[in-house]
Amino acid sequence: MPMYELTFIASPNLSEEDLKNLITELKNTITSKLGGNITKDFFSKKIALAYPIKKNRQGFLVSADFELEKDRAESLKNTIKDSGQIIRHLFITKHPQKISPLKTKLIKPKIIKPKIPKEKIKIEDIDKQIEEILEA
Predict the structure, then answer these.
(1) Total Cβ atoms within 10 A of residue 83
(2) DSSP string of 33-78, one letter each residue
(3) What is the domain range of residue 19?
(4) Which of 55, 80, 107, 132 has CA 20 to 30 A from 21's CA?
(5) Over the chain (136 residues), what is each successive 10-residue block's mean pLDDT?
(6) Any idea what the CATH number is for the domain that residue 67 is in?
(7) Beta bridge partners of residue 94, listed in sequence order
């Protein structure tokens, strides 16, 4: 079943009980009438709008995610459009993201060869240099 997200702004003139009834009605429509499954439950909060919508400066922002058969989604869209309590809505089809594993590139380790002096140094020469340094 395809996944959908419904976000809408309900009229600010609704009482809290009317808003709960609207949400319950939409839940029943999705689950009972259309045979869908709600994956992320409805939540709502009152917000100030950035610009007036149908002469309203505030509204209740409501959002939910659900699964529904593609042919039944049109029926839900028509139900939302016919509702006089919803002043703006957004109905999004969610497509699952395929996460592919990251391709890693093997890095060859660098082998650092110590620098070997071309001529061999005798231990006596090193001792002499150390004594000269200590005397100075």
Answers:
(1) 16
(2) IS--EEEEEEEEEEEEEEEEETTEEEEEEEEEEEE--HHHHHHHHH
(3) 3-94
(4) 55
(5) 91 93 93 91 91 93 92 90 91 84 81 75 86 84
(6) 3.30.70.60
(7) 3
